[in-house]
Amino acid sequence: MTGTSGNPTTCRINFQLRHAGERKTIAYYLDLTRERIPTWAGINLGGNDLAIQGQGYDGRCAFCRYFRKALKNRGIRFSCTCPFEIQDNTCTWRVKIGSVFFDQDLLEDEEKYLTYLRRVENDPRDLEARLALGVIHEYHGRFAPALASYWAAHDLDPDDAFIKERLQDLLSLLQQLLLASEQQKS
Questions:
Q1: Which of 5, 29, 41, 78 could form a disulfide linkage to 60, CB 3.0–4.6 angstroms apart?
Q2: Could you read off the pLDDT of 125-182 as tens digits, one per residue?
Q3: At which residues are the TPR repeats (predicted)?
Q4: Model pTM greater than 0.85?
Q5: Exposure of 4 in the CB half-sphere (CA atoms within 13 A)
């Protein structure tokens, strides 16, 4: 999930401020998001522009989604350009996770999520449900459950390239977060 040069890609959020209080609200929710969503992405706020640079699976997308939702709920006006989000010819938003684009409605629909949970409870060998749960958890920045879902899917289909890709990316991210945590302690 890197750009054409192999470098991390950048999501840009441009704020259309109406008054000075909105800048404080943005700063507050930026700090809150940093506390709640683990990420290895670079986050730089300058003027009315926020750049989030990363590779998607490094928590960048979960961070961006959570932050934008908080801004929207507070009525902060902004525009966003993201290389991991596209609108197809049917005006459906799709989000890139790994090498595949997924329907954003699938990723954010609580009923569909619960349906996949029930399917796995009823049939632990349901590969589609395991993969869907992995993708949904990853999108929301819940990396441990995503890893567990992908691992269970890998047990069912050890040759699937997408499953291997997601496991490698998430394990790499968790290793980076662990090393950063250890460095902070020492």
A1: 41
A2: 999 999 999 999 988 878 889 999 999 999 999 999 999 999 998 898 888 878 887 8
A3: 127-160
A4: no
A5: 0
Instruction: Record the tokens describing residue 128, joined without a space.
Output: 């589609």
| Torsion sign (Cα): 85, 98, 64, 47 | negative
> What's the per-residue H, E or C state across the chain?
CCCCCCCCEEEEEEECCCCHHHHHHHHHHHHHHHHHCCCCCEEEEECCEEEEEECCCCCHHHHHHHHHHHHHHCCCCEEEECCCEEECCCCCEEEEECCEEEEHHHHHCHHHHHHHHHHHHHCCCCHHHHHHHHHHHHHCCCHHHHHHHHHHHHHHCCCCHHHHHHHHHHHHHHHHHHHHHHHHHC
Q: Which of 12-16, 71-75, 129-133, 181-185 has the lowest mean pLDDT?
A: 181-185
